[in-house]
Amino acid sequence: MPNTNGHGPKRAILHARVSTDEQAHSDYSLAQQIEALREYAAREGYEVLEEVKEPARAARAWRGQVWTA
C-alpha cells in the first residue's frame, strides 16, 4: 500500500455493534455494518487489520471501550 502522508500505511480496525436484538435483525445488522465499513476502508485505502463484531447481548454486558494508537 502506498505511503501518502509520510507516516506509514493507513490501517484500521472495523468495529460493528448493535445495541438491541431488533437492530441485529434490521437494516442495521452486523453483516451490513461490516460490509459498509469494508467498502469505506477499500475506497479510502485502509489496510484492515481486524474486524470486531458485537452482538446485542455483548453490547448490554459491556459498558465502554478505549482505543489507543
Describe the structure.
This protein is an alpha+beta fold and 69 residues long. A two-stranded parallel sheet has the order 1-2. It has helices at residues 21-24, 30-44, 56-61; strands at 11-17, 47-54. It has three helices and two strands. It has a domain at 17-61. 36% of the residues lie in helices and 22% in strands.
Précis, in short:
With 69 residues, this protein is α+β, with helices and mostly antiparallel strands. It contains 3 helices and 2 strands; from the N terminus they run E-H-H-E-H.
Please state the average pLDDT score.
78
Shape label: elongated
Strand content: 15-25%
Tally the helices: what do you get?
Answer: 3
Order of strands in the sheet with most strands = 1-2
- C-alpha Rg (nearest Å): 14 Å
In total, the number of strands is 2
The helix content is 25-40%
Content-based structural category: alpha+beta
